[in-house]
Structure formats: C-alpha cells, structure tokens
Amino acid sequence: MSTEYRWLLPAALIGTLEERPGRPARRTPRDWAVDITMFVLACLITLVFLGDLAGRPREVVVAEQVLGALSCAAVWLRRRWPVGLALTLAPLSAFSLLVSGPLLIAVFTVAVHRPFRYIVLIMVPHLLALLPYGWLYPDPEFGFAGTILVAVLVYLVLIAWGMLTRSRRQIVVTLRERADQAAEQARRLERERIAREMHDVLAHRLTLLSLHAGALEFRKDASAEEIATAAGAIRSGAHEALQDLREVIGVLRWDRQGEAPEPPQPTMADLNGLLEASRKAGMEVRPALRVSGEPEVPAALGRTVYRVVQEGLTNARKHAPGVPVTVAVDGAPGPGLTVEIRNPARTPGRHTVIPGSGTGLIGLAERTGLAGGRLEHGTRPDGDYVLRAWLPWPS
Questions:
Q1: Count of the separate structural domains present in the chain
Q2: Could you tell me the CATH number of the domain that includes residue 310?
Q3: Pairwise CA distance, residues 111 & 353, whole Å
C-alpha cells in the first residue's frame, strides 16, 4: 500500500496493513529472549505504576488493571505490528496509567524497526494524549506543565535510543554486505584468472593439435613416416593438454587450507621452446629476440611476454595458417620490453578453420594492463596483422 494514503487510515487498520513481505519470519532464540525481556519489562513498569492508583475509585482501578493486563499481553504483537500497537495504545494513554509500560515498549520498537516517518506518525496522537492525561492526573510536585514536559523527555530519550540502535544495526548489515561483495569479487577475479590461464594454455595446445590433424587430412600423399610423426605429435600434445587440464582442475578444487597448487609458470627462458613447438607443428616462425640482460628479466614480466607470444602464435594458426610469422622481442631495463607478432592477414589456399572463443585478446589486454603495459592489435595498411605489446621493465 502506498504510504501517502496510510496517513488517512484509522489506527486499527494500520496494524493489519503494515508492509511485510510474505509470511512473518519465525522467531529465533535471540528473538524469543528479547520478546520475553520486553514483556517482563512491560509487566514490571505496570506493577510499579500500580501503586499510583491509590485514592482512585474502585471501578477506575479495576478498569486500569484490565487495560494494563491486556496491554502487557499485546506486547507480544510488537514485532509483527509495531505501528498498529503504538497507535492503538495512544488513545488509551489519555486516561490510563497502566498502559504506560507497554506504550513505551511499543514506541521504542517503532523507533528500532521503522523509518523516521513512522515515528512522526505515532508521536502525533501520543503527544495529543498527554494533554487530557496531564489535566486529569497532574503530578503533585510538577503540576500540569511539568507532567507534560517529563513525558515528552521520556519519549525523546526512547526515540533517540531506538534510532541509534537502528542505525547501528544498519551499519552492521552494510558492513556485512560489503564484506560479502568483496568476497564475491575476489572469487570472480580468481575465476577470471583461472579462465585466462586455461585459455592461454589449452588454446595453444589444441590449436597445435588441430594443425597436425589438418596436415593429415589434406596431405593424402603423406608417407608413413610423416603420418607417424604427426600422430606422435598429436598424442604428445593431447597428453600435455590433459596434464594442463588436471593442473587447472586442481586449482579449482583447492580448499585453501595450504599453499595453492599452482602449476609451474612459464618465463622468458621457455620462449624458445614455445617457438620450437610451433615450428614442429609446421609454422614458419621468424624470431627476432634482442633482449639486453635476458637472464635478469623478472619472472612476472617474462610470464607476460610468454603469454603475449603464445596468444599471437595461436591467433596466427587459427586465422592465417601457412603464412610466415615474425616474432620480435626487443627491450632493456628502463625503456621496457616491446613484443610484436606480425603475419599476413590473408592466407591463400584451402585450410581448416579453427573456432575461437573471442576472449583471448580481451584476457591478454587485461593481463598487460595489470602489468602496467599496453596492447595494440589490428590490420596495418600493408596487409599485415600486428599484435604489439609494451611492458614496463624497471631499471
């Protein structure tokens, strides 16, 4: 129900029309403890005020006791209908003293569990109810004005206490949500890291397998020795791909109780092996490695260079098989490292189209960005496709 019309409803209806999603949640043991405490507190306040009824007519005392007992019993409804309970007790407080305990509990509950607009809603009839009560039963020491002032101060203290409790709970909930979001973001980043590693490793292995299988498919005149060599390369590549897959699955199954079972990461020293594997698969690779102080290349930098070259060779095998590929790595500490993979964009003749996910370059751009570098790729006016990355190398 829209809140703009709730202000026009009678108090009895507001309690039944309060917004609450679905069925009310079951009380937890903590809820039961709090509710019992509130009920006992309301009963104790009622018993304390019972002595102030001395001197009043017997009929008034009996009516007060009945209203006080019913009001204390109604405290059990405060969790489900706090606004309705507070508004229902407001007119009773105009002439009854023993509803004061349950009334204070209801006001405090609204301040804790409802926004400020509901506090304003319940306080208007409560403050109005103070006027007839203060006129009928003024305190002998404070008089009419003092009775009203003390009651207002009690209300303000309760509301401030309730709003402070509500704010503290909201802060706790917000911090918990932020912690959950941070944990979820950490899990997402970890999944993305594993996905990048899986793509970088498996895509390279599988494109090599596809290249060997394509050679067997189109070379009908291949000798038995060539067929055996290609089959051996396929078997070896499949074994390596399965081993890489086991290592990635091991990372996914890691329970974080010990050190991460990270597979050995490649470095600059493994770059020549990568180029040699591509040559064995039939690619024409033209290396141009001019790195000053290669043995001193940091492990993280070398791993990124390896992944850039690996992705460039993989894309060349997918989209331009049979053409020469130039791999140039140049740089030194200070100026940084430049990695360039260049190949003709178009390839003549018939070849097997190797499907791709389209995420390799996206992941590579993320990897180089995390390393503080930049990545460029595209077809040049001379018809060559170029993948170029620059990576910082502190001196």
A1: 2
A2: 3.30.565.10
A3: 68
